[in-house]
Specification:
- The protein is mostly beta strands and 309 residues long.
- It has one domain (2-307): Neuraminidase (6 Propeller).
- Helix content is 3%, strand content 53%.
- It has helices at residues 12-17, 249-252, and strands at residues 2-8, 29-35, 40-46, 49-55, 61-66, 74-78, 83-88, 91-95, 102-106, 112-117, 123-127, 130-135, 138-142, 149-156, 159-164, 169-174, 179-185, 197-201, 207-211, 216-220, 244-248, 256-266, 269-276, 279-286, 291-296, 301-307.
- Strands 5-4-3-26 form a 4-stranded antiparallel β-sheet, with no helix packed on it. Strands 6-7-8-9 form a 4-stranded antiparallel β-sheet, with no helix packed on it.
- The radius of gyration is 19 Å and the shape is globular.
- The two termini are 16 Å apart.
């Protein structure tokens, strides 16, 4: 059985507006058929543009679809609205069933890192040291806190988790309250602070972090209620909750060098997209540290990874 998603490419004028037209490009209508077995998708980028490549739980490719974009650097699946959301540079766009590719937000000329979507379809991005919610055609909310936020992960309809690479911590941004509160440190190695990383969650709510260099994976399943700890010393000396190290992908999988993205794989496991000496691949890793290679790019360039659920 298939779930049919019809992606209608917009007119050349619309695509020119959002910066994804190319000379000689013609509007096309392509059906994207999502098998019921679809479990995972990666964003693959090449000289010809970007594609969404879809896999089942065993890592077998079951479908792929051109995005209509020249490139891309981030991908999410929005289950509430059954749509893929693709970011290409500073423009965030969607591939919607039965509708055109259209821009849902712009963060042009700024450095953006990470993207996530809430259960009700709000898009969270980390951009220029702040966190933002993109809704409609503009930025809906932006945090008042300026820190070195790098990646974001789903936390609720009105909040998101993010890495602050300067503090080596994971923090929660509560949009409604307008506050950012630190939850735990993802490394107790001070020399690894200021190092970019990616954050994700498993299906039980556990929070996982993978540092980009050496692909060190840590896990935290403690209380996500803020303890009052402050990475900048305004807490009176409260000890920081700390994640535990689960594994180092560079040891178990020598070709892996950097972690690029984390997606849930089950109640106690995640998928990690890595890049390395032999290109990109996806590793599944559980809380005990057991890991296995799920899929390999085989010459393609993979830049992001999302669950389809």
């Amino acid at each position: 059985m298939f779930k049919s998603i019809l992606t209608v490419a917009a007119s050349t004028a619309l695509l020119g507006l959002v910066g994804c037209a190319s000379p000689g490009w013609e509007p096309v209508i392509e059906p994207l058929l999502l098998p019921d077995s679809a479990a995972l998708a990666v964003l693959a980028v090449s000289d010809g543009g970007s594609q969404i490549v879809i896999f089942d739980e065993a890592g077998v490719e079951v479908a792929r679809h051109w995005t209509g974009l020249d490139g891309g650097d981030a991908l999410v699946w929005d289950p509430a609205n059954e749509r893929f959301i693709v970011r290409d540079g500073g423009t965030v766009q969607v591939v919607v069933p039965g509708q055109a590719i259209w821009a849902i937000g712009r963060v042009e000329d700024v450095e953006a890192h990470g993207m996530s979507v809430s259960e009700d379809g709000r898009v969270f991005v980390a951009v220029e040291g702040q966190l933002a919610v993109i809704d409609g055609l503009e930025i809906e909310e932006i945090s008042d806190v300026h820190r070195c936020f790098w990646d974001v992960a789903r936390d609720g309809n009105d909040s998101a988790l993010s890495i602050d690479v300067m503090a080596g911590s994971v923090a929660r941004w509560d949009v409604e309250e307008g506050v950012v509160q630190d939850l735990f440190v993802y490394t107790d190695e001070e020399e690894c602070w200021h190092e970019p990383g990616v954050v994700g969650r498993d299906d039980s709510g556990g929070v996982w972090v993978a540092r980009t260099s050496n692909a060190v994976v840590t896990f935290f399943d403690g209380d996500l209620t803020p303890s009052g700890w402050d990475p900048f010393g305004a807490d009176g000396g409260i000890d920081a909750p700390t994640a535990r190290t689960v594994g180092r992908l560079t040891v178990e999988h020598p070709t892996a060098q950097q972690a690029l993205s984390i997606a849930p794989a089950g109640p106690e496991s995640v998928h990690v997209l890595y890049t390395g000496t032999s290109g990109e691949g996806v590793v599944s890793i559980d809380r005990s540290g057991e890991s296995r290679v799920l899929a390999e790019a085989g010459g393609e360039i993979w830049v992001d990874l999302v669950p389809i659920r």
